[in-house]
Amino acid sequence: MHYGKDRPAILSHDPFKAIIAPRPIGWIGTLNADGVPNLGPYSFFCGVGSNPNMIGFSSEGAKHSYVNAKATGEFTFSLSTEALITAMNISSSAHPDGVDEFAKAGVTIGKSVEIAAPFVAESPAALECVTLSAEQMRDRHGTLLNKYFVIGDFVRTHINDDYIREGRFDVEKARPISRLGYRDYATVTELWELARPDD
User: Fold this and answer.
1) 158-186 burial, b for 16+ CB within 10 Å, e for fewer?
2) Which residues pair with 26 in a beta bridge?
3) Hey, what domains does the chain have and what are their CATH numbers?
């Protein structure tokens, strides 16, 4: 099967998000113009590059995380884990600007060192980021879309010491969750290593 613009009837739901999976969840912390904390999960999230370490997230619509990251020039990322899935899900609810999603989700505000934006203190790992770009996106024809992409540069990394083992961050112990398609999620429960041919 292959198709273009028109999805065949046998696919009752768009499979795009199920194919581009698993996707880490960018649990983004920001402050609004009045200094009220905002917290939202984004499944269109990725590492952009290393040295310097950079991450990016895409917002479908000019949501608070995008607006705040652009206006304040900063944001945080907190790792979403199996233990925090309920809080992460609660923070996905749409609220008016000025509602503190940290409080709604029942998580503790972690105090950043180099920026003002908060992170989730209960998360095994969090990143303080300075916004490098926050732009409205265009399609291949140049038409502006109601989609926005933010790229940030890490300035500080927070790791709970309980999740460090033999000099590494213990991903298996942290049990991060990822977004799949539809309403499906997955948990990292098993790791395996694969050496490159030139290692």
Assistant:
1) bbbeebeeeeeebeeebbbbbbbbeeebe
2) 42, 79
3) 25-187 (2.30.110.10)
Quick one: pLDDT band at residue 5, thresholds 50, 70, 90?
Answer: confident
pTM, whole model, 2 decimals? 0.94
Q: What is the C-alpha separation between 190 and 176, in angstroms, rounded?
A: 11
Dmax over CA atoms of the chain, in Å, equals 53
2-11, 52-61, 123-132, 156-165: least confident range: 2-11
Residue 130's contacts (CB-CB under 8 Å, 6 or more residues apart) are 73, 74, 115, 152, 153, 155
According to DSSP, the residues that pair with 157 across neighbouring strands are 127
pLDDT of residue 149: 98
Cα–Cα distance measured from residue 111 to residue 121, given in angstroms and rounded to the nearest whole number: 8
What is the secondary structure of 73-142 as a DSSP string?
SEEEEEE-BGGGHHHHHHTTS---TT--HHHHHT-PEEPPSSSS--EETTSSEEEEEEEEEEEEEE-TT-
Burial of 14 (0-12, 13-18, 19+ CB in 10 A): exposed
Calpha distance 131→77 (Å, rounded)? 12
Residue 123's CB is within 10 A of a number of other CB atoms, namely: 28
State residue 130's pLDDT score.
98
Neighbours of 69 (CB within 10 A): 29
